[in-house]
Specification:
The chain is an alpha+beta fold and about 450 residues long. It has helices at about 35-40, 40-50, 60-95, 100-130, 170-175, 180-190, 200-220, 230-240, 265, 325-340, 390-395, 420-430, and strands at about 150-155, 220-225, 230, 255-260, 275, 280-290, 310-320, 345-350, 365-370, 375-385, 395-400, 405, 410-415, 435, 450. The chain starts with about 35 loop residues before the first helix and ends with a strand. It binds one RNA strand of 94 nucleotides through helix 1, helix 3, helix 4 and strand 5.
RNA sequence: GGAGAGGUAGCGAAGCGGCCGUAACGCGCUCGACUCGAAAUCGAGUUAGGGGUUAACAGCUCCUACGUGGGUUCGAAUCCCACUCUCUCCGCCA
């Protein structure tokens, strides 16, 4: 079964076939945060890490890196001598001489180099492991804050519905209408799984198709149908690994992971490529299942469709020129908001503070939809500019006209997850008699169905 | 699953133990010449990472990298082993 070994090494050499981190070929180049920056301006990183409430020690890094450099200097001097002496051997042999004495010395030198090389590789690997765990630096415009309490609301849109009855939870509504079956889903798989039937299954397909149609039409995104499981290099490229392995589902005998979001395959679509400047910006979207272990969220959102081990989501990914990436972020945010407007759902947009942002993001806007049963806004989309963070890890560059290659900026945003969208529709459009009205834009996708009636 | 071919810079491709990794040659790209301008042509330039030195991402200097990892050797793109990906043919299969 496990005969076909997992492919996870990639050309850039950050990884070796069995998933262990080894010396990078291009330390400080592709693969991680800017090494030079850390070395020369450790205080910048220190400040950023503090803002993110990270416990990584820059001090520790400086020690590791110092050791690495000391070893390198030593071994490189020896190599330099070896190279010169080897050339001498060649010259003597060409002249018909006997190079025995030199060869004797070189043999010892070679052994010493082998020893030091191993030590240097080890030191390099330690430095790299540290760097791979450093989150992206927050953009200057991001509010500094500890947690979600300090996120900043930007604007609200839409009308919060007023009910002359107690609004019910979407899980109950969907179950009562025969579309959702959490009992059987639990029997089939376990908790945090859902099963939809009839109108609900069709609604999931309808939402997916509606979102994709909007993106490929209005938004100019290229639709992609990517792999739903990827190798370790891809997961490292977008930042899920090595730090967040426990959040992922992996296969037992194969070095593959189920994607937690289509951001992973879509962003890695151009891994190890050099794009032309004219290729930017580039936009992709995909509807895929997403798999998340939800480790650490035990007890949260245990009812309904909000937090699942498997859910379907349409994702947007953009590759942008560094000078243009924050414009692209605004654009992508618009695309997400537009879907909610078309679905007639009330929402608000917030900017995440430094302490609440994801690992790879330099700036993130969350879109939160109104959920009547909880009487609050809940996240339905998250749009992030990852600047060059993922591009470094996945080695995605572009070539400015006539210039040297530069890291692209990558962005990703949900647009939208079908489960949470369904939840919002059920709750916001529920009616006193137990029926649920559907947004008008979905009618063509629902075979003309406008209201879901109790059986 | 069987057999074979291959992975070298932005792309194509040569090299198959030291004179070939600032990697032949071609394309592309940059600059210049020619031109009123352009095309064509001609000329020059054009890999990346790291160490040292440094105010410097400037220069100078050294090291490393020919799919990945390991081995042989004073010395490996070149020889050996394992792995991986791509392509062709055969077999099997939705």
């Amino acid at each position: 079964m496990a005969k076909l070994r997992p492919p996870c090494g990639r050309k850039r050499g950050v990884l070796q076939p069995c998933g262990e981190y080894v010396a990078a070929k291009r330390l400080g180049g592709s693969g991680m945060i800017d090494l030079k920056l850390v070395q020369k301006q450790p205080e910048v990183l220190e400040k950023a890490l503090k803002a993110r409430c990270s416990d990584l020690s820059v001090e520790e890094f400086l020690q590791l890196d110092g050791r690495r450099r000391a070893l390198l200097t030593e071994v490189e001097n020896l190599k330099s001598r070896r190279n010169a002496a080897s050339a001498e051997v060649a010259a003597q042999k060409r002249a018909g001489g006997d190079a025995a004495a030199l060869l004797e010395e070189l043999g010892q030198l070679s052994d010493r180099i082998k020893e030091l090389d191993a030590q240097a590789a080890q030191a390099r690997s330690e430095v790299e492991t540290w760097l791979l765990r450093v989150p992206n630096l927050p953009h200057a415009s991001v509010p500094v804050g500890r947690d979600e309490q300090e996120n900043v609301e930007i604007f609200r849109k839409g009308h919060i519905p007023v009910f002359d009855f107690a609004p019910r939870e979407h899980g109950d509504i969907g179950t009562a209408l025969g579309g959702l079956d959490f009992v059987r889903a639990a029997r089939l798989a376990g908790s945090r799984f859902a099963l939809s039937l009839g109108w609900a299954a069709r609604l999931e397909r309808a939402l997916s198709n509606f979102f994709l149609d909007q993106h490929t039409g209005h938004g100019g995104y290229v639709e992609v149908s990517p792999p739903y499981m990827v190798n370790r290099a891809s997961m490292t490229g977008t930042g899920q690994l090595p730090k967040f392995e426990e959040d992922l589902f992996g296969l037992r005998d194969w070095e593959y992971y189920l994607i937690p979001t289509a951001e992973v395959p879509l962003t890695n679509l151009h891994a190890d490529e050099v794009l032309a400047e004219d290729d930017l910006p580039r936009a992709y979207c995909a509807s895929t299942p997403c798999f998340r272990s939800e480790a650490g969220s035990a007890g949260r959102d245990t009812r309904g469709l909000i937090r699942m081990h498997q859910f379907t989501k349409v994702e947007m990914v953009r590759f942008a020129h560094p000078d243009d990436s924050f414009n692209q972020l605004d654009l992508m945010l618009d695309h997400a908001c537009r879907l909610l407007e078309l679905l007639e759902l009330p929402f608000r947009v917030i900017t995440l503070c430094t302490g609440d942002m994801g690992f790879s993001a330099a700036k993130t806007h969350d879109v939160e939809v109104w959920m009547p049963a909880q009487n609050t806004y809940r996240e339905i989309s998250s749009c992030s500019n990852c600047t060059d963070f993922q591009a470094r890890r996945a080695n995605i560059r572009f070539r400015p006209k006539g210039g040297k290659t530069v890291w692209v900026h990558t962005l990703n945003g949900s647009g939208l997850p079908t489960g949470r969208a369904t939840a919002a529709i059920l709750e916001n459009f529920q009616q006193k008699d137990g029926s649920v009205r559907l947004p008008k834009v979905l009618a063509p996708y629902m075979g003309g169905l406008e209201v879901i009636e109790p059986a």
